[in-house]
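Entry 14. Structure prediction run on the chain below.
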Amino acid sequence: MIEIIQKALNVYSPVSLQTAETLAGTAEVRVLNCEDFLEQEQQTIKSEFIVLEGIVRGYILNTEGEDVTVNFYVTGNAVTPAIMRGINNKSVYNVQVISDKASVLVFNNTRMEELMPYSADLQQFGNIVLMMDSMRRMEKEVLLLKENAKGKLDWFRKIYPGLENEIQHYYIASYLGITPTSLSRIRSNS
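Output returned:
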């Protein structure tokens, strides 16, 4: 488990063997199937997640009950941190596996937060994950306001190379704020 933790966190920022050892008691690896949830809206937030293998999406439900994809997490990605997934420790987010299977490293978020003040490398990891997540959200927000549908798809392809061939296209359309019909039309013309 220690090696798995160190390798997963090192993707973002180097962590020491000691930090990985300390986190080992707060972590587990879960193997999930397509459409399994890591977290759902209104659940108490208990965990932080890193996708070891597979594809996971974060989504919300709009007022019509339609799901709107907010983010994708592929192999090696940390899921949006708990502090940004909820209000009053209740999730406003659904985190769901969309590949056939996924292997996810799951940490107890309360214990992780307790350990952070005593571990500079864990603090650095947390700061980088927060910063990268915030930057991606801002980039997407500007893109959705500024670009036409083709520009949005081009950006998606750059950020998530090959993902459009691995997941259902309505997830992509939802993520980009376009209709599945528009996405299909753009894909056939490019």
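The chain has a mean pLDDT of 95.
Filed with the rest of this week's runs.
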